[in-house]
Amino acid sequence: MWAPYPATLPRPDNGKYSYTRLSAINHCLARGGTPPELTRELSSTNESALLGIVAHRFLEQNQSGSDEKDRSKLWDEICIDITKKAQEKAILQIPNPRLWPGYEVKRSAALAGMLSPKRFIGTAIPRNQKWQHELYMEYSAASLFGIADLVRTTDGIIDAIYDLKTGTNVETISSAFRIQLGLYGYLATSSLGAKIKELGIILMDGSRMLVDDVESAMIEARDWAFVLIEKYKAHNLTWATLFREANPSVDACRGCALRPVCPSFQGNVEAAKSTGFCAGRVVETGRAKNGMGFMTIRSESSGAKIHISQLVALPEAGANIAIFDARWLSETSVQLQWNSRIVMLDDYATLPGQAR
Which whole-number Å values give the CA distances from 180 to 23, 147, 159, 175, 177, in the listed order? Predict the structure, then answer.
Protein backbone atom coordinates (compact mmCIF):
# COMPACT_ATOMS: atom_id res chain seq x y z
CA MET A 1 0.00 0.00 0.00
CA TRP A 2 2.85 2.36 0.79
CA ALA A 3 5.03 3.32 -2.16
CA PRO A 4 8.34 5.16 -1.64
CA TYR A 5 8.89 8.55 -3.19
CA PRO A 6 12.46 8.98 -4.50
CA ALA A 7 14.73 11.10 -2.34
CA THR A 8 16.52 12.38 -5.43
CA LEU A 9 14.93 12.93 -8.81
CA PRO A 10 16.66 11.82 -12.04
CA ARG A 11 17.60 14.26 -14.76
CA PRO A 12 14.34 15.55 -16.22
CA ASP A 13 15.25 15.31 -19.90
CA ASN A 14 15.32 11.74 -21.24
CA GLY A 15 15.21 12.97 -24.85
CA LYS A 16 11.88 11.29 -25.63
CA TYR A 17 8.88 13.41 -26.54
CA SER A 18 5.34 12.20 -27.10
CA TYR A 19 2.26 14.34 -27.74
CA THR A 20 1.30 13.89 -24.07
CA ARG A 21 4.67 15.05 -22.81
CA LEU A 22 4.77 18.00 -25.21
CA SER A 23 1.30 19.05 -24.03
CA ALA A 24 2.58 18.91 -20.45
CA ILE A 25 5.58 21.07 -21.37
CA ASN A 26 3.21 23.50 -23.09
CA HIS A 27 1.27 23.90 -19.83
CA CYS A 28 4.11 23.63 -17.32
CA LEU A 29 7.83 23.11 -17.78
CA ALA A 30 8.12 21.26 -14.48
CA ARG A 31 5.39 18.78 -15.34
CA GLY A 32 7.04 18.17 -18.71
CA GLY A 33 10.11 17.02 -16.81
CA THR A 34 8.32 14.39 -14.75
CA PRO A 35 10.35 11.17 -15.03
CA PRO A 36 8.30 8.56 -16.94
CA GLU A 37 9.12 5.83 -14.42
CA LEU A 38 7.88 8.04 -11.58
CA THR A 39 4.72 8.91 -13.46
CA ARG A 40 3.94 5.24 -14.03
CA GLU A 41 4.61 4.43 -10.39
CA LEU A 42 2.29 7.10 -9.01
CA SER A 43 -0.33 7.34 -11.74
CA SER A 44 -3.82 6.17 -10.92
CA THR A 45 -7.01 6.18 -12.86
CA ASN A 46 -10.76 6.39 -12.30
CA GLU A 47 -13.84 4.60 -13.56
CA SER A 48 -14.11 6.74 -16.71
CA ALA A 49 -10.49 6.08 -17.59
CA LEU A 50 -10.93 2.33 -17.03
CA LEU A 51 -13.96 2.38 -19.29
CA GLY A 52 -11.89 4.11 -21.95
CA ILE A 53 -9.29 1.34 -21.70
CA VAL A 54 -12.05 -1.26 -22.09
CA ALA A 55 -13.37 0.48 -25.22
CA HIS A 56 -9.91 0.69 -26.78
CA ARG A 57 -9.26 -2.98 -26.04
CA PHE A 58 -12.64 -3.89 -27.51
CA LEU A 59 -11.86 -2.01 -30.73
CA GLU A 60 -8.58 -3.92 -30.89
CA GLN A 61 -10.12 -7.36 -30.44
CA ASN A 62 -13.55 -7.03 -32.05
CA GLN A 63 -13.32 -8.77 -35.40
CA SER A 64 -15.80 -8.20 -38.21
CA GLY A 65 -18.52 -10.80 -38.56
CA SER A 66 -19.02 -11.43 -34.85
CA ASP A 67 -22.63 -11.34 -33.72
CA GLU A 68 -24.01 -9.46 -30.73
CA LYS A 69 -23.70 -12.51 -28.47
CA ASP A 70 -19.98 -12.79 -29.27
CA ARG A 71 -19.50 -9.06 -28.81
CA SER A 72 -21.26 -9.19 -25.44
CA LYS A 73 -19.00 -12.03 -24.30
CA LEU A 74 -15.90 -10.17 -25.49
CA TRP A 75 -16.95 -6.95 -23.72
CA ASP A 76 -17.54 -8.80 -20.44
CA GLU A 77 -14.22 -10.64 -20.66
CA ILE A 78 -12.34 -7.39 -21.24
CA CYS A 79 -14.13 -5.68 -18.33
CA ILE A 80 -13.19 -8.53 -15.99
CA ASP A 81 -9.56 -8.49 -17.12
CA ILE A 82 -9.15 -4.70 -16.86
CA THR A 83 -10.84 -4.60 -13.45
CA LYS A 84 -8.68 -7.45 -12.15
CA LYS A 85 -5.45 -5.74 -13.21
CA ALA A 86 -6.55 -2.38 -11.78
CA GLN A 87 -7.56 -4.05 -8.52
CA GLU A 88 -4.01 -5.30 -8.04
CA LYS A 89 -2.90 -1.69 -7.52
CA ALA A 90 -6.06 -0.38 -5.85
CA ILE A 91 -6.14 0.21 -2.10
CA LEU A 92 -9.93 -0.35 -1.84
CA GLN A 93 -12.47 -2.45 -3.73
CA ILE A 94 -13.18 -1.18 -7.25
CA PRO A 95 -16.91 -0.63 -7.93
CA ASN A 96 -18.66 -3.10 -10.25
CA PRO A 97 -18.10 -1.97 -13.87
CA ARG A 98 -21.88 -1.67 -14.37
CA LEU A 99 -21.79 1.19 -11.86
CA TRP A 100 -19.10 3.13 -13.76
CA PRO A 101 -20.38 6.44 -15.26
CA GLY A 102 -21.35 5.97 -18.92
CA TYR A 103 -21.00 2.18 -18.78
CA GLU A 104 -24.34 1.29 -20.38
CA VAL A 105 -23.95 3.86 -23.17
CA LYS A 106 -20.52 2.59 -24.18
CA ARG A 107 -21.48 -1.06 -23.79
CA SER A 108 -24.57 -0.59 -25.96
CA ALA A 109 -22.50 1.06 -28.68
CA ALA A 110 -19.99 -1.78 -28.61
CA LEU A 111 -22.64 -4.50 -28.71
CA ALA A 112 -24.44 -2.77 -31.57
CA GLY A 113 -21.32 -3.24 -33.69
CA MET A 114 -20.27 0.41 -33.70
CA LEU A 115 -16.65 -0.40 -32.79
CA SER A 116 -15.20 -2.60 -35.51
CA PRO A 117 -11.87 -2.10 -37.31
CA LYS A 118 -13.51 -3.05 -40.62
CA ARG A 119 -15.97 -0.19 -40.19
CA PHE A 120 -13.14 2.34 -40.30
CA ILE A 121 -10.23 0.84 -42.22
CA GLY A 122 -12.07 -1.53 -44.53
CA THR A 123 -10.68 -4.75 -43.13
CA ALA A 124 -10.49 -6.79 -39.97
CA ILE A 125 -7.19 -6.77 -38.08
CA PRO A 126 -5.58 -10.23 -37.83
CA ARG A 127 -5.11 -11.24 -34.22
CA ASN A 128 -1.38 -11.66 -34.74
CA GLN A 129 -0.99 -8.13 -36.13
CA LYS A 130 -0.11 -5.20 -33.89
CA TRP A 131 -3.17 -3.02 -33.41
CA GLN A 132 -1.64 0.18 -32.11
CA HIS A 133 1.02 1.57 -34.42
CA GLU A 134 4.15 3.21 -33.06
CA LEU A 135 5.30 6.24 -35.06
CA TYR A 136 8.82 7.46 -34.44
CA MET A 137 11.49 9.85 -35.72
CA GLU A 138 14.68 11.57 -34.57
CA TYR A 139 14.89 15.34 -34.26
CA SER A 140 17.79 17.37 -32.90
CA ALA A 141 19.16 14.60 -30.67
CA ALA A 142 15.64 13.86 -29.44
CA SER A 143 13.08 11.16 -30.17
CA LEU A 144 9.60 12.21 -31.24
CA PHE A 145 7.04 9.42 -31.09
CA GLY A 146 3.34 8.59 -30.90
CA ILE A 147 1.01 5.60 -30.88
CA ALA A 148 -1.95 5.69 -33.25
CA ASP A 149 -5.08 3.63 -32.54
CA LEU A 150 -6.02 2.68 -36.11
CA VAL A 151 -3.97 2.96 -39.28
CA ARG A 152 -5.37 2.30 -42.75
CA THR A 153 -3.11 1.18 -45.56
CA THR A 154 -3.70 1.09 -49.31
CA ASP A 155 -1.26 -0.95 -51.41
CA GLY A 156 1.00 -1.15 -48.38
CA ILE A 157 1.15 2.62 -47.83
CA ILE A 158 -0.44 4.32 -44.81
CA ASP A 159 -3.07 6.80 -45.98
CA ALA A 160 -5.32 7.31 -42.93
CA ILE A 161 -4.88 7.50 -39.15
CA TYR A 162 -7.68 7.46 -36.58
CA ASP A 163 -7.77 7.93 -32.81
CA LEU A 164 -10.57 6.57 -30.61
CA LYS A 165 -12.15 9.11 -28.23
CA THR A 166 -14.32 7.60 -25.53
CA GLY A 167 -15.59 10.82 -23.94
CA THR A 168 -19.31 11.55 -24.09
CA ASN A 169 -19.08 15.28 -24.80
CA VAL A 170 -16.92 15.30 -27.93
CA GLU A 171 -18.71 17.51 -30.45
CA THR A 172 -15.91 18.66 -32.73
CA ILE A 173 -12.22 18.18 -33.47
CA SER A 174 -10.63 20.50 -30.94
CA SER A 175 -7.34 22.25 -31.54
CA ALA A 176 -5.71 19.69 -29.23
CA PHE A 177 -7.12 16.77 -31.25
CA ARG A 178 -5.97 18.45 -34.47
CA ILE A 179 -2.42 18.82 -33.14
CA GLN A 180 -2.35 15.22 -31.89
CA LEU A 181 -3.58 13.79 -35.20
CA GLY A 182 -1.38 16.14 -37.21
CA LEU A 183 1.65 14.94 -35.26
CA TYR A 184 0.74 11.31 -35.94
CA GLY A 185 0.38 12.12 -39.62
CA TYR A 186 3.70 13.95 -39.73
CA LEU A 187 5.54 11.11 -37.99
CA ALA A 188 4.02 8.51 -40.30
CA THR A 189 4.93 10.59 -43.35
CA SER A 190 8.49 11.28 -42.20
CA SER A 191 9.42 7.85 -40.89
CA LEU A 192 7.23 5.43 -42.85
CA GLY A 193 6.68 7.16 -46.17
CA ALA A 194 2.95 7.55 -45.54
CA LYS A 195 0.73 9.53 -47.90
CA ILE A 196 -1.95 10.75 -45.54
CA LYS A 197 -5.37 11.49 -46.98
CA GLU A 198 -7.42 11.28 -43.78
CA LEU A 199 -6.85 12.11 -40.13
CA GLY A 200 -9.79 11.66 -37.81
CA ILE A 201 -11.28 10.67 -34.49
CA ILE A 202 -13.66 7.76 -33.87
CA LEU A 203 -16.50 8.27 -31.40
CA MET A 204 -18.27 5.71 -29.25
CA ASP A 205 -21.42 5.88 -31.37
CA GLY A 206 -19.45 4.59 -34.34
CA SER A 207 -19.26 7.92 -36.14
CA ARG A 208 -16.05 9.72 -37.02
CA MET A 209 -14.88 13.28 -37.52
CA LEU A 210 -12.16 14.20 -39.97
CA VAL A 211 -9.51 16.91 -39.83
CA ASP A 212 -9.86 19.67 -42.42
CA ASP A 213 -6.78 20.35 -44.56
CA VAL A 214 -4.61 17.42 -43.55
CA GLU A 215 -1.40 18.91 -44.93
CA SER A 216 -1.76 22.12 -42.90
CA ALA A 217 -2.55 20.12 -39.76
CA MET A 218 0.66 18.11 -40.12
CA ILE A 219 2.77 21.23 -40.69
CA GLU A 220 1.20 23.01 -37.71
CA ALA A 221 1.79 19.97 -35.48
CA ARG A 222 5.41 19.66 -36.63
CA ASP A 223 6.15 23.33 -35.90
CA TRP A 224 4.34 23.12 -32.54
CA ALA A 225 6.40 20.09 -31.49
CA PHE A 226 9.77 21.44 -32.65
CA VAL A 227 9.26 24.81 -30.92
CA LEU A 228 8.37 23.14 -27.62
CA ILE A 229 11.34 20.77 -27.78
CA GLU A 230 13.72 23.66 -28.41
CA LYS A 231 12.09 25.70 -25.63
CA TYR A 232 12.53 22.86 -23.19
CA LYS A 233 16.09 22.04 -24.20
CA ALA A 234 17.10 25.70 -23.94
CA HIS A 235 16.63 25.66 -20.16
CA ASN A 236 19.15 24.69 -17.56
CA LEU A 237 17.39 21.41 -16.87
CA THR A 238 17.48 21.24 -13.11
CA TRP A 239 14.40 20.82 -10.95
CA ALA A 240 15.05 24.17 -9.28
CA THR A 241 14.86 26.11 -12.55
CA LEU A 242 11.88 24.12 -13.82
CA PHE A 243 9.95 24.62 -10.58
CA ARG A 244 10.46 28.36 -10.82
CA GLU A 245 8.52 28.33 -14.08
CA ALA A 246 5.80 25.95 -12.92
CA ASN A 247 2.29 27.04 -13.89
CA PRO A 248 -0.10 25.47 -11.37
CA SER A 249 -3.70 24.89 -12.40
CA VAL A 250 -6.25 22.13 -12.02
CA ASP A 251 -5.71 20.84 -15.56
CA ALA A 252 -1.93 21.23 -15.62
CA CYS A 253 -1.38 19.64 -12.20
CA ARG A 254 -3.80 16.73 -12.42
CA GLY A 255 -1.81 13.52 -12.61
CA CYS A 256 1.57 15.21 -12.17
CA ALA A 257 3.89 13.14 -9.99
CA LEU A 258 5.87 16.21 -8.91
CA ARG A 259 3.11 17.60 -6.72
CA PRO A 260 4.78 16.64 -3.42
CA VAL A 261 7.89 18.65 -4.24
CA CYS A 262 6.61 21.52 -6.41
CA PRO A 263 6.51 24.77 -4.39
CA SER A 264 4.19 26.45 -6.91
CA PHE A 265 1.65 23.66 -6.56
CA GLN A 266 1.98 23.60 -2.78
CA GLY A 267 0.93 27.24 -2.71
CA ASN A 268 -2.15 26.68 -4.88
CA VAL A 269 -4.91 25.39 -2.58
CA GLU A 270 -7.51 25.16 -5.37
CA ALA A 271 -5.27 22.99 -7.55
CA ALA A 272 -4.38 20.77 -4.59
CA LYS A 273 -7.96 20.07 -3.57
CA SER A 274 -9.30 19.75 -7.11
CA THR A 275 -6.69 17.10 -7.89
CA GLY A 276 -7.36 15.16 -4.69
CA PHE A 277 -3.92 15.81 -3.25
CA CYS A 278 -2.66 16.38 0.27
CA ALA A 279 0.69 15.93 2.01
CA GLY A 280 2.07 16.29 5.49
CA ARG A 281 3.50 14.72 8.64
CA VAL A 282 1.52 12.03 10.45
CA VAL A 283 0.63 13.19 13.99
CA GLU A 284 -2.00 10.58 14.98
CA THR A 285 -3.24 7.14 13.88
CA GLY A 286 -6.01 4.78 14.99
CA ARG A 287 -8.73 2.34 13.90
CA ALA A 288 -12.50 2.70 13.75
CA LYS A 289 -14.96 0.04 14.92
CA ASN A 290 -15.21 -1.37 11.38
CA GLY A 291 -11.48 -2.08 11.42
CA MET A 292 -10.58 0.61 8.92
CA GLY A 293 -7.71 2.87 9.92
CA PHE A 294 -7.55 6.62 10.10
CA MET A 295 -4.83 9.18 10.65
CA THR A 296 -4.32 12.87 11.11
CA ILE A 297 -1.58 14.71 9.29
CA ARG A 298 -0.32 18.25 9.63
CA SER A 299 -0.27 19.86 6.20
CA GLU A 300 3.15 20.95 5.02
CA SER A 301 1.71 23.85 3.04
CA SER A 302 -0.98 25.30 5.35
CA GLY A 303 -0.11 23.93 8.79
CA ALA A 304 -3.70 22.70 9.21
CA LYS A 305 -4.53 19.26 10.63
CA ILE A 306 -6.27 16.96 8.13
CA HIS A 307 -8.19 13.82 9.07
CA ILE A 308 -7.87 10.92 6.59
CA SER A 309 -10.16 7.87 6.69
CA GLN A 310 -10.52 4.49 4.94
CA LEU A 311 -6.97 3.34 5.59
CA VAL A 312 -6.09 -0.36 5.40
CA ALA A 313 -2.50 -0.03 6.60
CA LEU A 314 -1.28 2.63 9.00
CA PRO A 315 2.03 4.53 8.84
CA GLU A 316 4.13 5.35 11.84
CA ALA A 317 3.62 8.65 13.62
CA GLY A 318 6.08 11.25 12.37
CA ALA A 319 6.21 9.84 8.83
CA ASN A 320 5.96 12.26 5.92
CA ILE A 321 3.39 11.14 3.34
CA ALA A 322 1.66 12.35 0.20
CA ILE A 323 -1.74 11.21 -1.01
CA PHE A 324 -2.87 11.31 -4.63
CA ASP A 325 -6.46 11.23 -5.92
CA ALA A 326 -8.30 11.29 -2.62
CA ARG A 327 -11.67 12.91 -1.97
CA TRP A 328 -11.83 16.11 0.07
CA LEU A 329 -14.95 16.01 2.29
CA SER A 330 -14.27 19.33 4.01
CA GLU A 331 -11.45 21.74 4.77
CA THR A 332 -9.98 19.28 7.27
CA SER A 333 -11.24 15.86 6.14
CA VAL A 334 -10.07 13.58 3.33
CA GLN A 335 -11.43 10.17 2.33
CA LEU A 336 -9.43 7.65 0.33
CA GLN A 337 -10.88 6.09 -2.82
CA TRP A 338 -10.00 2.83 -4.56
CA ASN A 339 -7.71 4.68 -6.97
CA SER A 340 -5.92 6.77 -4.36
CA ARG A 341 -2.16 6.43 -4.05
CA ILE A 342 -0.16 6.93 -0.87
CA VAL A 343 3.61 7.47 -0.93
CA MET A 344 6.22 7.82 1.76
CA LEU A 345 8.27 10.96 1.24
CA ASP A 346 11.82 9.86 1.97
CA ASP A 347 14.03 12.75 3.09
CA TYR A 348 11.14 15.06 2.28
CA ALA A 349 12.83 18.17 3.67
CA THR A 350 15.80 17.78 1.32
CA LEU A 351 13.82 17.37 -1.92
CA PRO A 352 14.00 20.13 -4.56
CA GLY A 353 11.84 23.11 -3.69
CA GLN A 354 11.14 21.90 -0.15
CA ALA A 355 14.12 23.17 1.81
CA ARG A 356 13.08 24.10 5.35
Answer: 9, 10, 16, 9, 5
